[in-house]
Amino acid sequence: MLADFRIHTARLNLRPVTSSDRADLIALESDAQVMRYLNGGQPVPEAGLLDADFLTPRGGEPEVLAARHRASGAFIGWFALFDDGWVDGLRTAEIGYRLTRAAWGSGYATEGVQALIEVAFNTLGLDRVRSETMAVNQASRLVLEKAGLVHIDTVFPIHAQPIPGSEQGEVIYEIRKKK
Asked: Which of 40, 47, 73, 130 would bridge 174 by S-S if both were Cys, CB 3.0 to 4.6 A apart?
């Protein structure tokens, strides 16, 4: 969906991930705090995880954009937009993101999510964008709310290997294109 996109925000350059991002992507998933709400803080193997219910990009994934700081070129993390097709009569996509701990609390996540929402609605012609996170992940929930998404549901999936906080469920947020 984003294979040819380059997005520039006030502080970020977003471009498709490539094999040159591999070391940064692996380092990101080696941080226990970054992975806390995805797998309980376990480092992800260098090869990634093919059977996980979360993305472990290694470069070349067409829906994933590497985020780099405009001024310094430093790796900030990644953003993704997955086309879910037609859902309930609406062209729908899901936003995901993962940032380095050094980038937390600086507004980069909100900036990147807002940029992807703009592309989703104004360039790709989508009707709705969704995102899902653990209910206990207050920082991610705040990012989604600041970006304009609203909480629409809480679900309680059954996990083969539950992690702390999973008993509180997962929250689904969405934003719809204004008509």
From this structure: 130
pLDDT-derived band of residue 57, with 50, 70 and 90 as boundaries? Answer: low
Please check the confidence at residue 70 and state whether its pLDDT lies above 80: yes
Instruction: State how far the Cα of 139 lies from the Cα of 157, in Å rounded to an integer.
Output: 21
Which contacts qualify for 131-134: CB closer than 8 Å, 24 or more apart?
131/94, 131/95, 131/96, 131/172, 131/173, 131/174, 132/94, 132/170, 132/171, 132/172, 132/173, 133/37, 133/170, 133/171, 133/173, 134/37, 134/165, 134/166, 134/168, 134/169, 134/170, 134/171
Domain boundaries of the chain, sorted by first residue: 7-131
The per-residue pLDDT for 161 is: 79
